[in-house]
Amino acid sequence: MSKLGFYLLLLVLAPVAAVIVITPMDSQKQYIFGLISIGMMFLLGFSKSRKITIVMVILSALMSTRYIWWRTTETLQFNSEIEAILGIGLYLAELYVWLILILGFLQTTWPLKRTIEPLPDDTSLWPTVDVYVPTYNESLDVVRDTVLAAQCIDYPRDKLKVYLLDDGKRSEFAVFAADVGVGYITRDDNNHAKAGNLNHAMKITKGELICIFDCDHVATRTFLQATVGPFLKDPKLALLQTPHYFYSPDPFERNLRAARSIPNEGSLFYGPVQQGNDNWNATFFCGSCAVIRRSALEEIGGFAVETVTEDAHTALKMQRLGWGSAFLAIPLAAGLATERLGLHVVQRNRWARGMTQIFRVDNPLFGRGLKWQQRLCYLNAMLHFQFGLPRVAFLTAPLAYLLFNLNIIHSSASLIFAYVLPHLVMSLYVNSRMNGKFRYTFWGEIYETVMCFHLVIPTLLTMLAPKRGKFNVTDKGGLLDQGFFDFHIVRPHVIVAVLLSIGIIAGVVRATAHDYFGVDPYVIALNVGWAVFSLIILMAAIAVARETKQVRKTIRIEVQIPAVIHYASGISSRTKTSDLSMGGAQLDAPDNRHEHDEIEEIDLLLKSGTITIPVSKISGDEESIRLRFGDMPLSRRRELVRVVLARADAWIQPEYKQDNPLVSLGTIIRTVFELFWLTWKDRREKRKRDNQPAAKEDSAA
Question: In Å, what is the CA distance from 675 to each residue of 230, 353, 440?
């Protein structure tokens, strides 16, 4: 369809849409209309057609807009000032969610699914590339393998240079860089944090393209061959971003059993959102795992230094000048996720402050150079991080009636439910259909609830004073010897959960004696149901604060490689690995010789040659042998990195199952029960451990 035809169709359908949105109905008619709409949605859902999906998006948007129109025109009358304040606050929160929903539909309905653009056979045509690995206070244990993996990238040696950018000015890093043969760059100050570090390196290096990896992001060997091609095809392409894949579990995956089998928090962004951005030439630079054209950076004066999210702001500046951007949804590098919930909160807090800063100092809605689609994609990203206050409003809103008998929505319970039902059901259903392999229903509420209380003040302060605050480095590579409950992080969540519990009890009491209290049982039921849902989400968020032990320094990766075991007796046995890490390996036991003959070293038999690694046995049985690697020279460790972390297919994972909203809700409820069960179990085991010394003393006496 031509653009003219599309706009003519919109002109014809606009009056129909307006009638759907603004026509008032009583509760009975609205119930009928809503149920018919939901039924139509479910019938359309049987089709897998892309065009049908777009129709479903339009229907969902219309019903959500109808709900907001009704809220705006019929429910904002109040009996007191406090009801007006709370009621308008809730209405604004709903208006915010509606806007995010509409912008999200625009952003994800037309994803651009790129494939790899091959490089020409003539390598002389390939551009030169500088690989930057910026670091500040991270340990060498974290940085080492990132640098070694960068050296393993399959690219002509005369066209690839790797640089370690050390803002910590540490002698051990300089020695390491010299030992492995990479450039080492430092500077006299730390002005502008990471952005300043990168800009300083740009003055010293000369590569046509700049490839950036955070110091914990390990690249696969094919990274540049998969990402450089589009720069040759499109001379106006400034940026190609790839996903941030994490080979270590984030706090949700580590602390919640259910979260280990669902798409993680970042899957939605590094899937439909970035692919949708790509369709509108609005791909965000995410600070790592990306390639950028030097000339584009030079045209905007280098990496942006005005905000603490220099990455997204840099992309925005380049796009304002007409440069192109792209997103390749193939994980070509992997890094460490934040180890603890507290660190996760600090990191997300910085992201929220940074996006709020951009909103204030370089608002994408204004200024030249952007198309309207680009402006709205950036607007959605910046508004997304303002979810703190609206989320708090939704969690606490039922308390107004349950505890204080305040009516903050001027309507009957029946009419509220009649309007809200199609709005919620249809938006959940459409989002599940579109993004159900990247974000399961209701888990977004948990991710936001964990953060909401911590974002309210920082985002409001940044909105008022955008130049305040500084760049915070996220600690990576830490261990946790003993599990604990991080009450400090979830203190506000616990307080609200207690209030909701009291409100639910009060509501049930008032409902059972509604004649005595003179209340509408349907209003009570609506608020109690709302409070119960809020409590479930809150308790699931609180469960994330139950930190589990993290004692493994390296992450195991399942990979089968032919191996030879060398015993102290001089005998060797052939076998294969079942998993590998940078610290050790698990091998299939070829026989039971390992039970009485010491293992001294193993050979890993690769296509590129053999790696011999000194080892010591940790444990073994009839089926497998667990080994710990001994010290090895950097050249050998580089080869191990190539095998374990830098394989081309190292991070390619199968798709998750399609989301089922009811199953997802059941999983969340199970998570809440596990919080109580595991807490009780831990306390019981702790009591047993505490009683054991006392029992021994009694027996000794």
Answer: 48, 31, 20
pLDDT band at 370 (very low <50, low <70, confident <90, very high): very high
588 is catalytic: no
More confident site: 675 or 615: 615
Does 201 have pLDDT greater than 90? yes
Q: Which residues of 64-89 are buried (b: 16+ CB within 10 A; e: fewer)?
A: bbbbbbbbeeebeebeeeebeebbeb
For residue 410, the Cα-to-chain-centroid distance in whole angstroms is 38
Asked if 456 contacts 679 with a C-beta cutoff of 8 angstroms, the reply is: no
Domain with CATH 2.40.10.220 in the chain: 560-644
d(CA 197, CA 185): 9
Kindly report the length of the chain: 701
Contact by Cβ (8 Å): 383, 96: yes
Amino acid at 629: F
668: Cα within 13 Å, side-chain hemisphere? 25
Question: What is the bridge-based pairing of β-strands 160-166 and 129-135?
Answer: parallel
pTM: 0.89
User: Tokens in use for 620?
Assistant: 């073994």
Stretch 626-632: mean pLDDT, rounded?
91
CB 196, CB 310: distance < 8 Å: no
pLDDT, mean over the chain: 91
Output the furthest CA–CA distance in the chain (Å, rounded).
Answer: 95
Range name among 4-13, 27-36, 351-360, 523-532 with the lowest pLDDT average = 4-13
pLDDT tens, residue by residue, 105-120 = 999 999 999 999 999 9
Rounded Cα distance between 231 and 2, Å, is 29
**Catalytic residue (one of 130, 145, 167, 659):** 167
| Rounded Cα distance, 154 and 438, in Å | 30
Partners of residue 335 on adjacent β-strands: 246
pLDDT in tens, 503-540: 999 999 988 876 666 678 889 999 999 999 999 999 99
Please give the Cα distance from 231 to 279 (Å, whole number): 17
pLDDT of amino acid 474: 61
Given the residues 130, 250, 278, 311, the one annotated as active site:
311
Per the annotation, the verdict on 649 as an active-site residue is no
Cα distance between residue 483 and residue 469, in whole Å: 32
H-run or E-run covering 40: helix 27-44
**CA angle centred on 212, ends 209 and 214, rounded to 5°:** 175
pLDDT per residue as tens digits for the range 425-443: 999 999 999 999 999 999 9
Tell me which CATH code domain 127-337 carries: 3.90.550.10
pLDDT at site 701 = 43
Phi, psi dihedrals of residue 624, rounded to the nearest 5°: -145, 165
Q: Which superfamily does CATH assign the domain made up of 560-644 to?
A: predicted glycosyltransferase like domains (2.40.10.220)
Which ranges in the chain are annotated with CATH 3.90.550.10? 127-337
